[in-house]
Amino acid sequence: MTITSPLWGAELDHIRLDSTDPTQMAAFYRDAFAMTEQALADGTVLLRGPDRRLIIGPGADAGSSQPYSAFRFADQSRLDAYKAHLTSQGVNLMPTPTPLFADGAFAVADPDGRRMVFGLVSDTGNADGGAPSGHPPGRLQHVVVATADLAAMMAFYEETLGFVATDHVLRDDEDGGQTLTAVFYRSTPEHHSFAMFLSDAARPDHHAYEVSCWNDIRDWADHMATLEINLWWGPGRHGPGNNLFFMVEDPDGYKVEISAELEDMADDDPVRQWPHNERSLNLWGPGWMRV
User: Fold this and answer.
1) Fold match between 11-119 and 139-281?
2) Taking the mean position of all CA atoms in its chain, how far away is CA 5?
3) Is the separation of the CB atoms in 56 and 15 below 8 Å?
4) Helices marked H in 131-210 — which ranges?
5) Of 28, 88, 188, 195, which is the most buried if we count CB atoms within 10 A?
6) Fold of the 11-119 domain
7) Sign of the C-alpha dihedral, residues 7, 10, 11, 17?
8) How far is Cα 48 from Cα 244, in angstroms, rounded to an integer?
9) d(CA 238, CA 192)
10) Do 45 and 37 form a contact (C-beta atoms < 8 A)?
11) Does domain 139-281 have CATH number 3.50.50.60?
C-alpha cells in the first residue's frame, strides 16, 4: 500500500508562540536553542537557526497561546493540489498569518480555533541567520496540542486535512470500556509531525527539535546547564515514536523537547495501540500524564 494523502510530504516549517513578554521569550529561545533574533515588519520576532524557525509575538502567554503551525510543501504543484483538495470539501480558506511563506499560502482553522498554515518557503527569514557555531543539530520536527474534543479534532485532521494516524493511546475505564487519550499523526515517513492529547481544555502542549543521536541529546543538555536551565522531564525514551528525549520549560511554562532517533514508519504500518500509562510515555521512568 502506498499512502495517497494529499498532505503527504508536508513538513513542519515553523510555529508562532505569543507571550505577554515577547522580549523575554525571544531572548530565551535565542540563547537556549542557539538561534538568531530578527525583528519583523509586523512587530513579531523571528528566531532562526539551521532547520529551525520560530516566530514570537505579543499576546497571551505561550502557555495558552500557540496560534498557528505552518507546514511547507516541496513545490507549487503539491500546494495547488492540496488547496484544491480542501476547496472541494468546502473548507474555508483563510489568509496566511505568517510572513515566512510565499504568495499563495493559506490557513484553515481547526475545531479548537487553531490555525494550520500551508505554503511554500519564501526568502523572508529563510537563511539560517548566522546561528552560533558549535551546536549540535536541532531540526524543528513536530508540534503537539491538547484538546477537550478529541473526536472532532481527529475527524478534522484525518478526514479533512489528511494527516495519517500512527499510534493511539487508550485508557481503561471503570466500566470496562476504553477512552482514547492521544493520537500521533504523520505527514512524512517520520512517526509524527503532529499529535494531540485529550485534556480539559484546548491549549498548546509542546513542540520538538530533532537531533541526530544520543550524543546530541547530551550536548544540548550540557548547553542548557551552562544557561542554568533545568531539565523539566527526562532524559527518557517515549513508547510511541521510540525516540530519546528531554524537555525544558520556557519562561511562560510552555514545554519544548529535544528528540533523537524518532522512528520511521512504512506506508502499510497499521495504527498501533498503547496503554495510557507512564511506561508508554516514558519507557525509562516517570511520565507526563496529561489526564
Assistant:
1) yes
2) 19
3) no
4) 150-154
5) 195
6) 2,3-Dihydroxybiphenyl 1,2-Dioxygenase; domain 1 (3.10.180)
7) negative
8) 24
9) 12
10) yes
11) no
Buried-exposed string 208-237: b where 16+ CB fall within 10 A, e elsewhere: bbbbeeeebbebbbebbeeeebeebbbbbb
The amino acid present at 191, given as its one-letter code, is H
- Secondary structure (DSSP) of 266-289: -TTPPPEEEESSHHHH-TTS----
C-alpha cell at 133: 557555531
Quote the pTM value: 0.95
Annotated domain spans of the chain: 11-119, 139-281
Residue 78 CB contacts under 8 Å (≥ 6 apart), including other chains = 9, 10
Q: For residue 259, list its beta bridge partners.
A: 210, 245
Cell output for 120? 511554500
Question: Which residues are bridge partners to 179 per DSSP?
Answer: 171
Contact 243, 191 (CB under 8 A): yes
Give the type of residue at 215: N
How many residues belong to the chain? 291
What is the full per-residue pLDDT of the chain (291 aa) written as tens digits? 788 899 999 999 999 999 999 999 999 999 999 999 999 999 999 999 999 999 999 997 655 689 999 999 999 999 999 999 999 999 999 999 999 999 999 999 999 999 999 999 987 666 555 566 678 999 999 999 999 999 999 999 999 999 999 999 999 998 888 999 999 999 999 999 999 999 999 999 999 999 999 999 999 999 999 999 999 999 999 999 999 999 999 999 999 999 999 999 999 999 999 999 999 999 999 998 887
Contact 196, 182 (CB under 8 A): yes
